[in-house]
Input
Amino acid sequence: HLQQMLGTSGIDKLIYIGFSFGGGAAGSAAHTDTRRAVGAINLDGGHQSTDLLGAAVQTPYLAFTGTEEIIPFFYNEFFFEHLETMGTSPIVTRARADGKHLDFTDYRHLDQSIRAGFLGLTHTVHGEELHNVLAHFCLGFVDSHLGDNGQSWTPATSFEAFPTVESLDLSYVAEWFATSFPTVSPMPFYTEEPTTA
Output
């Protein structure tokens, strides 16, 4: 239905943005919408489908994850890039910010005494700090890929501005793949044909 609606909207380029389950859906939608999508932003969402498992995304992709203790690892490790070249795509940015799941929503602006009641899904970090992090990364990403104003944002710009945000290095996946499957030749970037729904 989304593709039908967009077909009559006159929108010629867009960035899909989502939180939680919507974050994974944003990546899938951008991967299939090769005509309009110029990027996707995933705010602390695990990818629930297999469509981008070991596949190269077709558009720039910004994936944020928080510091939840219940998930002690970044749970999108095997997505958005070919396994044998994981962590090397110039269009995939993975970042970990100091915050829990609901801190990636407007809940982070509530008073701390109210936030404390959300089943451990919010953090003690001041909401304004994470707001500034997300604004810098996401607005820079959107302006550089959607705007016509000549913005020259790069992920390094935001990582330098916010040194507490960790750039996630997933080169260990490529190392694991090379050890586990030594006879498989590396695939070049962006050869994956997008799936259609």
